[in-house]
Backbone:
């Protein structure tokens, strides 16, 4: 029997193949409908299971991670290294996007009139920068039960950090609670191990639908832009991030790819860093040798605020829209795109097409019409695949880099 890792890989290939073949059947063919319906069911069960485990997992892994880092006076170092890494890699991704977009000028030869209908019927939700900040900050601290119930990772994360620090501040007094958290986390990881057995089927189902439901004519008309975004995102994921990994840890890119494959394919198929998080955590700990205290801290945080793929996309797409409209963005305006895309990608939750919502802010910051989102939305399900995989890859590389630079390397019980 092939390993699970390999099964997932094979299943992803079969999923794409079946999806592609279904494209040849007429829309109303019974076989096509049947396969799509079955795929919807299996995909929904798989994503449902991942979501079921997600919030308890984020909570316990952050509590246990922060408590053991705090107990060994490493929290500050890890915190600072993590944030520096997140900022630096997102900045690199956007720089890459801006350079590529300036060189290739995507959208320059196309006419905006092609999209006039879509734009006229689309009403973009406007959000100004101050509103965005207010929204972001007020989302950080919430009633934990509300946050748990709504699956609001960022506020669950904040609450868990407080609990982790308080557990250590209380010393021996809260030993039982800490132990309870460690055992709970162990249990959840065991359940993830079971869910993983459904991963090949779940991923296959998601990919069948993804491929079968693409509007080929639309894809062809936007082909240049799509190829450019894919190429640049893949370059960041295949060259820049592995380069950083190698420079800091001397780990080979192939070793990394083998160890993180399950997480990357899941991110690709679900288009959600959050849904992939249980698998990302598992890959980091079991395949890449990241300690629980580091993985438990860096990965959940990364899944919500560190999105290299999204940052890259938002910067490139803003220039694409500018080209379509026929305006040349000045250097200062491009700097504004850079800054807003940085904030917008951090503010985007790890769910499908979240980047599209925060993208509006980037467009508005340089006076581009928010309605232009209507042009990008129909191809977003496709672009979101690679973007999300690179988002998750950035988090995984981050956990290895932070472990190398900020962890004292010692073994502690349960961490
Ligand atoms: N789908 C992406 C993620 O979950 C977010 C985005 O839309 O860019 O990481």
Residues:
């Amino acid at each position: 029997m092939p390993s699970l890792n390999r099964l997932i890989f094979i299943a992803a290939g079969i999923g794409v193949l079946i999806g592609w073949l279904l494209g040849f059947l007429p829309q109303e063919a019974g076989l096509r409908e049947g396969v799509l319906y079955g795929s919807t069911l299996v995909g929904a069960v798989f994503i449902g299971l991942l979501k079921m485990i997600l919030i308890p997992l984020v909570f316990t892994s952050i509590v246990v991670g922060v408590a053991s880092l705090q107990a060994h006076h490493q929290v500050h170092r890890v915190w600072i290294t993590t944030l520096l890494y997140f900022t630096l890699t997102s900045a690199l991704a956007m720089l890459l996007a801006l350079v590529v977009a300036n060189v290739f000028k995507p959208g320059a030869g196309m006419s905006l009139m092609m999209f006039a209908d879509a734009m006229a019927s689309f009403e973009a939700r406007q959000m100004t920068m101050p509103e965005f900040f207010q929204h972001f900050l007020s989302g950080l601290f919430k009633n934990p039960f509300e946050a748990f119930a709504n699956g609001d990772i960022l506020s669950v994360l904040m609450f868990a950090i407080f609990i982790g620090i308080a557990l250590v501040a209380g010393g021996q007094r809260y030993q039982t609670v800490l132990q309870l958290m460690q055992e709970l986390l162990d249990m959840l990881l065991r359940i993830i191990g079971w869910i993983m057995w459904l991963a090949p089927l779940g991923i296959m189902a998601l990919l069948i639908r993804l491929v079968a439901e693409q509007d080929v004519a639309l894809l062809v008309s936007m082909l240049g832009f799509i190829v450019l975004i894919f190429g640049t995102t893949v370059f960041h994921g295949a060259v820049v991030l592995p380069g950083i990994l190698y420079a800091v840890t001397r780990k080979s890119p192939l070793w990394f790819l083998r160890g993180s494959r399950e997480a990357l394919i899941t991110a690709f198929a679900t288009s959600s860093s959050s849904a992939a998080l249980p698998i990302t955590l598992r890959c980091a700990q079991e395949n890449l040798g990241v300690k629980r205290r580091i993985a438990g801290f860096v990965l959940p945080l990364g899944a919500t605020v560190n999105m290299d793929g999204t940052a890259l996309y938002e910067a490139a797409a803003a220039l694409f829209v500018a080209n379509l409209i026929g305006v040349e963005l000045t250097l200062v305006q491009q700097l504004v795109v850079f800054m807003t895309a940085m904030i917008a990608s951090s503010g985007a939750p790890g769910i499908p097409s979240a980047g599209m919502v925060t993208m509006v802010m980037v467009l508005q910051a340089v006076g581009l019409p928010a309605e232009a989102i209507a042009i990008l939305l129909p191809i977003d399900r496709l672009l979101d695949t690679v973007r999300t995989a690179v988002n998750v890859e950035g988090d995984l590389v981050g956990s290895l880099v932070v472990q190398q630079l900020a962890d004292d390397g010692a073994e502690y019980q349960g961490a």
